[in-house]
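Students often ask why we bother predicting the structure of a whole assembly rather than each chain alone. The short answer is interfaces. A chain on its own may look different once its partners are present, and contacts between molecules only exist in the joint model. In this exercise we take two input lines together and write out one structure for the complete complex. Read the inputs first and try to guess which parts will touch.
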Amino acid sequence: MSAQSLPAKEKSRISQLIQGLSIGLVFGFLLQKGGVTKYDVIAGQLLLRDFTVIKVMLSAVLVGMAGIYTMKWLGWVELYPKSGSLGMNVIGGLIFGVGFAILGYCPGTIAGAVGNGSMDALIGGVAGIMLGAGLFAALYPWLNEGILKWGFYGKVTLPQLLKVEERKVVLIVAAAIIVVLAVLEAARL
Amino acid sequence: MDYLKEIRWSPYVAGAGIGVLSWLSFLISRKPIACSTTFAKASGMIEKMIRGDIVDSKPYYQKVKLVIDWQWMLVTGIVFGSLFSALLSGDFHLQLVPALWASRFGTGAVKRILAALLGGVCLGFGARWADGCTSGHGISGTLQLALSSWISATCFFVGGIVTARLLFRF
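Now the answer. The structure tokens for the assembled complex follow.
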């Protein structure tokens, strides 16, 4: 079947899949070059011996935020903040953190670790993450009735919450990130 | 081109690159970079192979449809992007037990695999509970200044740092 005869919906789906794959290829390349596809680097961060993970994340947030908010102000993009609640984000986040330390990879970096040759990531970690996600899917109807709704705040962003202009919050967060990174460098961490 | 063959880049260069990539993701695909939903889909797809179409009717898989989508391909892309980078620099190593793990828990492979499995279960369960991971909340969500993501990312690291300290007891 030639590409021309595909319905428009199917064409746009294929284009979405190719875009996802392309972004993933570059993301994986950058994660590996940054060193964060390795257990020793991630566990080293959680032991506060190696600050590579925080440096990669904060510089991604700094550059990403500056560009995406600028494009939002120009009307080029919209934001997609995730809805949340204290029950979801605090409890789920802490459970995630426990797994993060035991496994030594996260869902994105584990894919990179597999590409880097880490067999503990492929054999143990990927299987575990899928089991954990399946377990959540099984418990979801019950959790969603109660604990996930506790302390609900929805898709709110910090400027909306604080009722402060977006530009000011972006500048303050950017300045705070630069200070944290400068302190890490000054302390030779 | 020699720069592409280096084993490690400055974390600031890698991080800034990810920041620019997130611009493209918003601009072209109209989506933030994220990873962990894909593991829930993959899990549901495997369950569907075993138990059949009844799995589609689970409430969670009504919300998260069991189809290969943009993010599924992104996670696949990460594997090959990382492999390509590692092969270019000669940094590809088949390894079962990481050095830092071995320094604390020994070189036994079974112990490491079981720990990775258990850690993975917590990670996968927690990522779905919090509705995001270190990518979706930790980078894409925080850069949008989402409250849910700043709280989640803080808790990822609080939980991780406390657990790592208990594990390594130093």
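Check your guess against this: Chain A has eight helices and no strands.
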